[in-house]
Structures are given as C-alpha cells and as structure tokens.
Specification:
Elements (H helix, E strand, L loop, with lengths): L15 E6 L3 E5 L5 E4 L4 H8 L2 H7 L9 H19 L8 E5 L5 H8 L3 E6 L2 H9 L5 E3 L11 E7 L8 H10 L1 E12 L4 H6 L12 E2 L2 H10 L2 E7 L4 H4 L4 H13 L10 E8 L2
Parallel strand pairs: 4-5, 4-7, 5-6, 7-8
Antiparallel strand pairs: 1-2, 2-3, 3-9, 8-11, 10-11
Helix pairs in contact: 3-4
C-alpha cells in the first residue's frame, strides 16, 4: 500500500504498480515506467545513509585513498577512458565541464589531463579533500540544490547521480541553470526497465534506500524534453546477467547477433547512458 497519493512527476499519470516492496516500496508509473521510492526519506535520513559503509562499498567500490601513484594513474585512465568514449562526441577544444557528484573525481582528472577545464560539486567531505589534495582539481563541497555558480558550462556530467534527488523538479531546474544554451548533459542512471531488473526482481542491486527515482528510457525521454533537452543518444548494453552463462568466445557473436536483429533492448543491462543537448 502506498503512503503517498501517486501522480507521476514525469508524465502526470495517476496509476501505478509496486514492483518492489521489501525494505521500502517502489511505485512505478504504468504509462512511462518512472518509479519513485515510497516513502521518500527525509534529508537527515539520507545524510546518515550516505555516511554508512554500505553506501561507499556500493558506489565507490575501491579504497582510492589507499592507492599508490601508479595505481591511482591506472584508475584515472581506466575510468576516464570509459567515459571519454561518450564525451568525445560532444567535447570541443576548451570545453568547460562541471561534474555533479564526481565521487573521488577520477574522470575529472582524466579530462583535466587532456586539457579541458573541469570542476566538481560533491557532498562528501572525504571525496572533496581527495579531489583537492590528491588530484589538484577545483571542487566545491555542496549539494546540487544549494550550489551557487554564475558560470554556464559546456557539459554537465551526472554519473549515477540523478536518481538520488528528493525533488527531481528542483534538481532539473538547477541543472538547466548551470548549462549553456547549446551545451550538453551526460547522464548515466540505473535502468528500471531492464532485463537485469526483471530477472533479478527484488535482488536487483539498484534497489537502494538512497535511490529516490527509478528511470526507464521512456520516462527519461519525456523528462528531458520537458526541460528543453534534445536527445542526442541513449545507449544500453547487453545484460551481464544474461551473458554470464554463455562461453566467453561466443559473447561477441551473441552481442552482434542481438544488435543486428534488434533484440538488445529486450536483454538490456543495469545502466542507461544519455547525451542530450540543451536548447532553451
């Protein structure tokens, strides 16, 4: 049973299903497949959750402060190269990049090394200290909602961040206030309408108490259009859950076969990657 009167904040529909009801409920719009946690945690509860060991084990996945210089360089190059395959489509010479929620800032360091102007906005005190002192980058400790900056950036990055905001409308308004007209947003979010989620059900690893919003491709398209973004690309990948029982030497063939025959969207993995242009 929902504790709130549900109206989808993306498309306005008032009908929902409950695909998850273990430690909390997730209410999913029957029309656009946008999901929202129920009840929405108050801010103090979220602050406590963000400072638990489980949060950092889930999101950081590595003790970056313990890395030596060589290990840190390798991590910067590994993460940076992954994100650069998408960012390379929109980066120009002298592009300015603001990453919201950069964690320990490895992708920002990669872009800085490549000559781009970068800055981060991060709520974690430890992460801010690491970015400033270990990576030598500009970063401010602030929530997105409280962040004040008159600069308009060419690119805003949010890597597994958009799902964390208590008020998605306020977050999107702040995002649009920080981006140039003609600039781009680079988003990665968990895919609630994925093969992984359908297969794993309540064991899906993105069902977490600090994930407020749950996105599908359809809900993201509607949301971005509402805030004057033009979708440039939206990419998924073939589910690792699906591929895990397939012999390694067959995996490339299977991926190619599914792409050619349009099967990939039905066997999609946990994450959606989006690039969109701001046209307001």
């Amino acid at each position: 049973m929902a504790t709130i009167n549900f109206t989808c904040i993306v498309c306005g529909n008032d009908k929902y299903s409950i695909p998850y009801s273990e430690k909390f409920n997730v209410l999913e719009c029957t029309k656009c497949k946008f999901g929202i946690i129920d009840p929405i945690p108050v801010n103090d509860v979220l602050v406590n959750l963000y400072n638990t060991e489980s949060y950092f084990n889930t999101h950081m996945q590595q003790e970056y402060e313990a890395l030596n210089e060589q290990e840190l360089t390798e991590s910067v190059n590994k993460q940076g190269t992954f994100h650069f395959q998408y960012l390379d489509k929109i980066l120009k010479q002298n592009s300015s990049v603001l990453e919201i929620g950069p964690g320990y800032g490895l992708q920002l360091k990669y872009l800085s090394n490549a000559g781009y102007k970068v800055k981060g906005v991060e709520t974690s005190e430890n992460a801010v200290s690491f970015i400033k002192n270990k990576l030598g980058l500009k970063v401010e400790r602030s929530s997105l909602e409280d962040y004040e900056d008159k600069t308009k950036y060419d690119i805003l990055m949010l890597n597994h961040v958009l799902e964390h905001y208590r008020d998605l409308h306020i977050a999107m308004l702040k995002i649009t206030s920080l981006i140039k007209i003609g600039g781009h947003i680079y988003l990665r979010v968990p895919n609630h309408d994925s093969y992984d989620r359908r297969k794993m059900k309540k064991e899906w690893p993105a069902y977490l108490p600090f994930h407020i919003s749950y996105f599908s491709k359809k809900s993201l398209k509607i949301l971005l259009t509402k805030y004057n973004f033009e979708l440039i690309c939206m990419e998924e990948y073939v589910s690792d859950t699906f591929l895990q029982k397939i012999p390694k030497y067959f995996k490339k063939f299977i991926k190619y076969f599914m792409f050619i025959f349009g099967i990939s969207p039905y066997i999609n993995g946990r994450t959606i990657t989006i690039i969109a242009k701001y046209n307001a």
